[in-house]
Model the fold of this input.
Amino acid sequence: MKFKVAAIFSDNMVLQRNKTIAVFGEGKDGKTVEVELIYKEDNIEKKATAKTDICNGKWITELPPLKENENCTMTVTDGENSKTFKNIAIGEVWLCGGQSNMEFELQNITGGKSHLENDKPNVRFYYTQKKTHIDEEFYKCEEETCWETFDSETAKNWSAVGYLFALRLSKALGVTVGLVGCNWGGTSASAWMSREYLALDEYANTYLEDYDKATEGKSEEEQIKEYEEYLIYEAEWNKKCDECYATIPGITWDEVQERIGVCKWPGPMGCRNPFRPHGLYETMIERIIPYTMRGFIYYQGESDDHKPNFYYRLLSLLIKQWRNDWNDEDMPFLFVQLPGHMYYPGEDLKHWCIIREAQEQVAETVPNTGMAVIIDAGELNDIHPKDKEPVGERLYRQAMYKVYGMMKEEEAESPIYDSCVADGNRMTITFKHLTEGLVVTGDTDEIIGFEVAGEDNKYYPGEAHAEGNTVVVTSDKVDKPMAVRYIWTNYPLQGVNLYNKYGLPVAPFRSVREESTTTYDIKIQQQLEL
Done:
């Protein structure tokens, strides 16, 4: 077997500081791999070394923890072949996971051009190659992947959310920040987990059941042929779709399909479909395990809105798997709660509300997680909001508080619903992560988005105002309020105007939750720990 260092190791790479550094690859059994990292400390050249034997065609070894550094060199050899990597930085490394809003490129966001032309950041980027299956072409393309340093051309395609997060982090910490892009638009969380993990949970397993049913009786060749035919159809359909929107302003989605045919996305399920469960875990996540990192940032959930009641369990399971894969049960996992989104006019299905609720429950119940609330940062009729600055900023705040301990709680955490108490026709709501008062923006003291319900469980708009760290809600249609909810809509058409003093929006909530979104079986936890 040919001697290889894993593709994620290249010139310009960033290695994680203050943690043992995993170095790994492939080679011929019986040989010994030696790794030497040359760095400087107080202008004195020093070396860190490690070695291991190759077994079953694989090898992995660990360098000792090192402080932040620049311009390091690493040489890896099996005694016969060697590979040298230059311009290595030792700093902070984060994985950027999820779907299209994490994938959304820096060149396409509001202010992106200014960042590309004017920034001089200490940020580097490695993009895990996006391939749907592993074949000879896969390995050939993988060898061409490499770490990139920032310039106006290379950084155009970087994750905007990841970059804006890293830009702030690098300035605050004074070190190089490396990002590992591992995302794909339109993907379910199930695409980023192994088949074995999905099978552990009866709800997550429904993704496997759907896939197996869709491919039942089809050979691999038939699946490939079917998907290739779909790709031809999709390319032509997309071209016609663009023409429709360009020539008929205001045309609705239904009218587009009436004119040019049905949108068949995401195509037939099969071994080449990138949206199949466990597929991208195999072609992307597994290719970078266990590259040493500080943690994960994650923006996903849109493509699981067809099974919103399962999302708490799905996301919890994904976090558990990734932490197990990296052999660190406390590895920070910071994620973005879904913003407002709806195609208007259209039915408000409120399924994004349930996804947001599930995300909040993950933040509240799964240790070492953090949630960036961006309910105020969505765009009507566009599932890809172009202003990513609030997203990067709020993920950065989560990291500064939860991971680095350099920011206080209220600067990083949005107010989260805690409890409500009824007194006559008044409902008083209290919040977690709130001690310094609420701010109502705009030219009114009236808070937008509150509703209350009585015994009949019918919700009516409420009049709400802030009193210190609480909100008081009343409605002339509800004499004895029993429940309250806030921004319980896929998209807040009237806007959002309730924040803490640090500009972080209050998270959407309902006081009466469904158990199905908050249950995580003890049996599954025990299976995962075996």
